[in-house]
Each structure stands twice: as C-alpha cells, then as structure tokens.
Task: structure prediction
Amino acid sequence: LTLGTFQMRAQLLALKTDVLWDVAMTPNLGLELVTSGKTSVGIYGFANKNPWGRKMRMLGAMPEFRYWFSGRPMKRAFIGIGGVIADYEFNFRNKFYDGNAFGGGLTFGYAFYLGPHWSLECYGSAAAVGYKMLRGDLDSPAEEAKYSRGYALIPFKIGVSFSYIIK
Result:
C-alpha cells in the first residue's frame, strides 16, 4: 500500500497542430502532457494521401520528451529528444519510392504564451533516420525495382505549432 501511494497534481495537457504541415496538406495532431515542473512528453501523428493531386501516401508518428529551461513547461525555450516512424509511398521525377523510415534526434524550440489556453511554438530538429524502401522507374516493370536501405541525417521536425492547453 505504501509503494502505491503518490502525490497527485493537476497536469497540463495540450492539443497541437503544426501549421506548416497543414499547409503541406498533411493533417497532423499532437498531444503533450506535462510530467514534472520542467518536463513533458508528447506524440504527434500525421498522414496524407495524394496532396495537391500528386501520387503520395504517408503515415507516421513522432514521440518526444522535452526539457523546459524556464521551469514552466509549455513556456519559453526547450530541448527535446524524439523519434520518428513513418510508412511512405510517392512518385518523384519519373521514379517511385515505397518504404518506411525510423530514427531519432534532437529538437530545439521556443513556445510563445498567447493566453491562458493558447501558445505558439517554433522549433527545428535534426535526426539520424534509417530507411528501407523499394524504388524504381515508373516506366519500367515492377520486377526491375531495387530494394535499398540506409541512413541519413535529416531535418525531421521543423515547424510552427498552435497549442490549445486543455488544463
């Protein structure tokens, strides 16, 4: 009974959407929960299908742990460590790509207080991402497609998010 006793505190919970992803016709939704006086955890989900009429499909998630320098989560500067996992398929310059990606990296950002329930976040991050995919020419038979895998250092989360703080 003693081991199961802990102090309950009111937690901040926020719903988020990345405006840049919305403009890119990739609907996304994030949820962030404050876990202590200086930390929070969150997860973003995103997906698209044929944005702007182009042959493309993407589905993924990005979990993240953040440390807030100001001592108040969801306000001012933060650093985060996060991951990404995605499944994709798209055509580009007469080639097709079909695969998945996974990885992790660091995020740096700043949250601007807009009101009791609203904030605006600007952030950027870089990640080491592994991928495996099937790629080939659109004009060639599918049997000639090549399987490849590798790693890349990429900017994986650059954006501007609006947050609605529920509590």
Summary: The radius of gyration is 19 Å.
